Amino acid sequence: KTVIHVNFLGAEVDTVYFPQIEVVGDIANAVWQLKESLKERQEHWDFTRFKEIKEHFEAHLVKGQHDDRFPMYPVRLVNDVYETTPADGIVCLDNGMYKIWFARYYRAHEPNSLLLDNA
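Request: output the structure for the sequence above.
Response:
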């Protein structure tokens, strides 16, 4: 398999990460150009496993969203915040263990609408 490193900076090559190709520059533009170069989906491409993983992930996300136990189950809290936050709202979190639950389970309405302090 060919590993392609796409970043603003060159790869830091070591014993476990040694990309064969480096694309250094504007990430969004680089990914767009890669996509454009593919033109069309190849017949031999099989996305079945990726679809299975996505379905498993989505099923895992909904587990516990309406759990009524006390004390409140963290997934329920995350879902309640999600459902009450307007589509243009921004959720900002300080440090604490709850931050892990939000990072895993909060489905942001828009990019940059969940801000986590990783200090």
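DSSP finds four helices and four strands in the chain.
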